[in-house]
Design goal:
This protein has 446 residues and is α/β, with parallel strands linked by helices. The chain has two domains: 88 residues, Roll (Pdz3 Domain); 244 residues, 2-enoyl-CoA Hydratase, Chain A, domain 1. It contains 14 helices and 21 strands. It starts with a helix and ends with a helix.
Length: 446
Amino acid sequence: MKFAALLRSAALVTAVALIPATTAGVAQVEGRAGPEFAKVMAVYQRIKASYVEQVDDEKLMRGMIDGMLASLDPHSAYLDGGDLQRLETMIDGNYSGLGLSVIMEDGAVKIISPFRGSPADKVGLKAGDFITHLDGKLIVGGSLDEAVAQMRGPEGTSIGLTIFRPGRDEPFDVTVTRGVIELEPVTWELQPGNIGHIMINEFSRDVGSDVFAAWEDLRSKATGRLNGLVLDLRSNPGGSLDEAVALSDLFLTEGRIVSQRGRARGENIYYDAETVFRGDIADGLPIIVLIDAGSASASEIVAGALQDHRRAVVMGQRSFGKGSVQSLLPLGRDAALKLTTARYYTPLGHSVQEGGIKPDIAVPQLSDPDLAKKSRFTMRESDLRGHLVNEAGMADEAMERDTRDDPRFQQTAEELEKQGIDDFQLHYAVETLRRTAPNAVAARAK
């Protein structure tokens, strides 16, 4: 029953579009691999016989498995114990802790994103921060499971974190009080001028239906007709491929949404509009999709689909660039293999692997006082060790063009704060919708 639930939900809050593996087969071991297996056994025997301390077989086997998967790409992994527990947590939808999505990178715990409104978000933790100490104890070089277990705990208790933030000269300490994290994949608000703002924080179960409900609520609250819609995918690390398709289908009436292509014939799948929801719920309404460097995987599927079909203007910063699909393959009752089985492509056939989705209008987050320093340390898929290479071979120079100064965006965070603007990207999107004719915005910039 545990794996049945995992496969049905196919939701994981990482930079992953996770799907159930329904067609994957087990490959036969090639004959020429025999000598390589002999080397593995020889190393195993040497360790067991000669290592300075007695080594548990389970530890060695797990090390071999992790080593095999780490040699493939950053997103393939063996899941058991705490890893499976975290996956189940995302299905259940709540837990007691800090409200962080984290990964292990070169032995350090790195924040992918804090959940909006979580204790971590309220104290100012940001995507890209590294956690080096917990309650003064160094955790660099430890396991991710142990770090996550320490950060979770009863509601109302506190824990001290030491943070290294790229762009700052010195680490800093922050105390976070744990709370019950009610995961809200979709939140929304009505902006001035009858502009709807829907934030999709992750692609977990029923996100498509939740966005539809948000749309209906915004329509009921508007004084008259809605004049525009902002779909906010910033810092959304991904999740279910099926929900990315469902969300895209809310605003498309025809054509391809996304395709995935793998080595096995069964992994070549095409997803089209009008298969989940009928019609365009916002027909004729201008839409802006907001993305940033933390928008990955399923977020990039939605942004790419609406951009290629010219249904929305994509605004913000170039996305993360994760264009691969992971399948969840059960290994017995208490373990699973998360394996990269395919690449995905936008409706016009573009792979976002490495290069990401390029916004039609590049808008920096001027509200961030650390923007200038952080821009030099922004982490994307292309920076991950062992990442899959884009077949088109995008050069770094092509991505670096996004960072050039734009004379329209010269205000400082302090100047914006005095004007009451704490989210410049959202402010710019809303103002664009308010002052632009609907039929002009619906057709994206060429």
